[in-house]
Amino acid sequence: MFSRRIAMAASIAMLISVLTIAPAAAAKPAPPGQPPPPIAERPLTSEEEAESARKVADAERYLASPEARDDTLVTLACVTPTAAGTDPTVTAATDETIQACYTPQGFLPVEARDQTRSYYCGPAVGQVIANYSWAMGSGSNKYLQSTIAQWMATDTNGQTNAYWLEAGLERATAASPRRPANWNWVVTQLQDSDRDGQFGDQLHDFVRANVSGSRMPLAISVKPHDPNGQFHLVSWPRPVGSVGHWITAYGWVGLWTGTDYARLYYTDSSKDEGGSTGKFWDPMRHIAGMIMAHHGRFVW
Questions:
Q1: CA dihedral sign of residues 114, 116, 119, 120
Q2: Radius of gyration (Cα) for the chain, nearest Å?
Q3: 45, 131, 205, 272: which is deepest, by most CB within 10 A?
Q4: Residues 165, 125: contact at Cβ < 8 Å?
């Protein structure tokens, strides 16, 4: 009798263990309106801190170079844009305000991709960047999002954190023709390094250096439209409870002035998840605010 009780207790304990562990390893996302708990972003290791610091130093060297300084030659007659990015169809080629005079800018030829699952914003960003890195033709994909999701552990976690996204980008762009020599994807924490109370100036520097210097996109994670947030993506017109959302930064316009003048151009992938799919822009200052409203990290 005693042994039967022990066996029954062991069975109950095993059942409780299974029920406790299974949800954490579930591949399916939470029901609509009930996002899964966010994956905690672990601290950077000392090696990762050093890699990030090296990339920041490389960016600073580029920005101090004659090549980058040429971008600062803006005519006094230039009309400063004042409107926010409320029109998602506006591009650098059709924006009359930008074309009215020479305005510093840089763009990469990327194509937006719609995410194939509700929690595949990370793999969609990976697909956009892989297609660019491999110089794929219009409408073609180098890898399926499901393949990139395996590299990013997205199905396992039901979402993609910065470290898994970085690992996936390493595999998706390895040996590609547009990936610079000695390139290394790095997770960086956006900081107010000059202690002026703003984060947009640092983000602007990093985007300029990556897009115009290294000719590579960036993967940026934001709160797309937090109901209590100060800023939201123009591609997400309605508030949404979100654990975070990845977008691809591929272009910039205007020098940093501390206002909404400087813009960040990005692709989004979320037309079936409450957002939109396509190319969009928002003020750099707003994007920086949405990054800091999340975990403050990006991959470049």
A1: negative
A2: 21
A3: 131
A4: yes
The upper half-sphere exposure of residue 175, i.e. CA atoms within 13 Å in the direction of its Cβ, equals 1
Tally the C-alpha atoms within 13 A of residue 77's C-alpha that lie toward its C-beta: 4
59 CB contacts (<8 Å, ≥6 apart)?
Answer: 205, 206, 209, 210, 213
How far apart are the C-alpha atoms of 60 and 50, rounded to whole Å? 15
Please, which pLDDT band fits residue 40 given cuts at 50, 70 and 90? confident
Of 15, 216, 257, 65, the closest CA to residue 132 belongs to 216
How far apart CA 155 and CA 169 sit, in angstroms, is 16
This prediction has a pTM of: 0.80
**pLDDT tens readout for residues 220-250:** 999 999 999 999 999 999 999 889 999 999 9
Q: Between 3 and 256, name the one with better pLDDT.
A: 256
Residue pair 185/194 in contact by the 8 Å Cβ criterion: no
Spatial distance between the Cα atoms of 174 and 155, rounded to a whole number of angstroms: 22
How far apart, in whole angstroms, are the C-alpha atoms of residue 5 and residue 229?
Answer: 55
The 10 Å Cβ neighbour count of residue 300 is 24
What DSSP line would sit under 23-70, residue for residue?
A: GGG--SPPPTT-PPPPPP-PPPPHHHHHHHHHHHHHHHHHHTSHHHHG
Residue 215 has pLDDT above 60, yes or no: yes
> Tell me, what DSSP letter sits at residue 250?
E
- Of the pLDDT bands very low, low, confident and very high (cuts 50, 70, 90), residue 112 is very high
User: Taking each helix axis from N to C terminus, what angle separates 200-208 and 46-63, rounded to the nearest 10 degrees?
Assistant: 80
